[in-house]
Write a structure and sequence with these properties.
This protein is an all-alpha fold. About 80% of the residues lie in helices and about 0% in strands. The protein contains 11 helices and no strands. It has helices at about 1-35, 40-65, 70-80, 85-110, 110-115, 120-125, 135-145, 150-155, 165-175, 175-190, 195-225. Helix 3 (about 70-80) crosses helix 10 (about 175-190).
């Protein structure tokens, strides 16, 4: 029975690898190219109404699940096509759905799923998340900081003891600051307020760089504590 379960798991992971590669090549790349032409994207959205919004949520789900697809172009495109508030809402709906799918898949098949997208040293760099006492607070705080590797964390959280509903709350609420900065910039581009858009992106970049430095410091400090080093 164990061997059969192991074979089924390996088969499911292999299918996921092939599916991810195919989706990225045939869907992900054209999708990013499409969103990178904001005026065409806006016209497409206007012509498709509700279906356009559902399609965009599907794009966000795809971006979360296929970790190699960058999310920023989609978030900026959402601000350009839908405005700040609707764009942010649609992004967050897609993020929560995609995050839920990743969590459940990793829970079912384990670390092998995470290793599809991330090398072992990257996974080990967040081993401090195995500390159940600090897990929820640390995860929320790291997701709140712009610039942190949220794609990696979205996969690794499934390996921890975090509750599913807690994860949905964190993935939906803590990502608001990073999403809304992108949609504000996209909306400014759509309004042809280029100076404000440049300012928003410059401030976001500065915060993100600071967030990256802070994230690495958190990783180093927490891993040292976990390993029993001063």
């Amino acid at each position: 029975m164990k061997d059969r379960k192991k074979i089924c798991g390996m088969f499911a992971i292999a299918i996921f690898v092939l599916f991810s590669a195919a989706v990225f090549w045939f869907v992900g790349r054209p999708m990013l190219a499409f969103v990178s032409e904001p005026e065409k994207f806006r016209l497409w959205v206007e012509n498709h109404g509700v279906r356009g919004r559902i399609a965009f949520v599907g794009m966000m789900v795809l971006q979360i699940v296929i970790a190699v697809i960058p999310g920023e172009p989609l978030e900026i495109g959402a601000g350009y096509a839908f405005g700040i508030w609707e764009g942010t809402a649609l992004c967050l709906i897609g993020i929560v759905i995609g995050s839920a799918a990743i969590f459940l898949f990793v829970r079912a098949f384990g670390v092998k799923v995470v290793e599809i997208f991330f090398p072992e040293e990257k996974i080990r760099s967040v081993r401090f998340l195995q500390d159940t006492q600090k897990l929820n607070v640390l995860t929320f705080f790291i997701f709140l900081i712009p610039g942190t590797p949220k794609d990696l964390l979205s996969y690794v959280v499934g390996l921890t003891k975090m509750n599913f509903l807690t994860w949905l709350f964190i993935s939906g609420v803590a990502r608001i600051p990073s999403v809304i900065t992108s949609t504000i910039g996209g909306d400014a581009l759509g309004m042809q307020n280029y100076q404000f858009a440049v300012l928003v992106f410059a401030v976001t970049l500065a915060i993100s760089l600071g967030g990256i430095l802070l994230y690495h410091r958190i990783c180093r400090t927490q891993n040292q504590k976990k390993d029993g080093r001063p």
